[in-house]
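TL;DR need structure tokens for one chain.
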Amino acid sequence: MTTTASPPPAIEDAATTHDRDRAEIARIVADVETAFNANDPELGVAHFAANASAVSARGQRVVGRDALLEAHRAGYSGPLRDQFARYELADVVFVRPDVALATKLARAVTPDGDPLGVGHAMVALYVLVREDGRWWIVARSNTLVPS
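>> reply
TL;DR here they are.
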């Protein structure tokens, strides 16, 4: 196998302006934040595709929207019940006109929204696909940031 000395390409759809797409993805992340803070499992999975998969901050992989809904129900009624967060959409990269990678930072806050610590407590990577005129989450992976 022959390798070349040329640098790797940046994979990004630069031919299209994605302002509307970024705004829609920001609304999706805002809905996920609202769902978390309101313990609303249905809203928490509203933007997931039927065959989506997610990896929790503890490394548990859940596949399929129905299983994700059950996982959200268990989390919101259990260990996440009294937790609150603020989400920041750090960036969105469109690798194709209909495929986006979004990075979200999460910060722990009080019920009133006051920060509990310094910096962010979790990073999440979302893979979104545009299908039937809207964006769907097809994969999400959460990673805790050590304190």
